[in-house]
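Sorry to interrupt, but I need a hand with the structure work. It will help me judge whether the discrete encoding reads sensibly. Write everything out right here, beneath this request:
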Amino acid sequence: MPSALQIVALPLRGLTWLGGQGTRAVAAIAFVAVAMPPLGALLRPYVTEAIFLLLCISFMRVDLVALYGHLRRPGLIAAATAWTTIGVPLIVALAAYATGLTTSSPGLALALMLQGVASPMMAAPALAALMGLDATLVLVTLVTSTALVPFTASLFASLFLGGMLSISPATLGLKLLGILAASLLTATIIRRMFGTEAIQRHKQPIDGLNIIILLVFASAVMGDVATDFIANPLFMIVVALLAFAVYFTLLAVTTLIFLRVGTERALALGLMVSQRNLGLMLAATAGALPQATWSYFALTQFPIHLAPYLLMPIARRLTALTANFVSAPPKEGRVPQGASEVQQHDAPPRTGCR
């Protein structure tokens, strides 16, 4: 008969293996979720709980030393935070009105505007680390923008959403604030109980648990995708193309805007801005959204889960080039061609999420 230690060790090994699969596991989640509609129907009532656990894990793993280091140089953080919390929702909302989408398809317009006002995904730092990008920069910007989202989401909801939401903008802001505060408190208690070193030591099992919770969320959101494709294939194809277009537009525009601080950092910020936390919006609205909004949220999971895997070769190439620039000694005191000012002076260490 197996001992209690062996019984505990078996799932721990499974989580460790799953956590070691990295972006491959994240990409596979979208296809598993679509392939198992009954699982989605079973898990849909637990969307809010899944989002809460994802938030707890992300807050629990915050590298406070790296966080304080970046906050001492707030210029880039402030610019990135302003872009993702004010610039993105404003542009998305204006585009939805300018194209007439608010009239022709209010459900899709609502989906786009909720995507715009959402904060970046809490998994973004871990995905950036898996890709070899500056996860610390992503983490700090994520923390600052997430702290602001209850207020900015409420503001933009009152300006642009009108009667599209089933709850008032003030209620939306209060619910977002409550979810974020509760998850931060829970994460702080866990850190105090187990300690930062223990959390870092068990990085891969925690990654594995994170992937399982992501599967719960993706299954709940994507459970009806196959059925909807059969019922209305043209609409679903259009929505899928829109989801990919919005995702990669946010990625490309953000990368171009921040290119002057270095290509690697710009791509890290682009990844963060394009990975919007739609689950937080679902949790705040209790899922009381039109069917078209649900369809868009479901299909945008494909670019969210596939992009880190597809972009991995580019990220590795950028990381290798950056390492070569930093390691090569400059001739006659000159900076190697192509190295940015940020790379030359006091580059912060990578986060412990790797």
The longest helix spans residues 135-161.
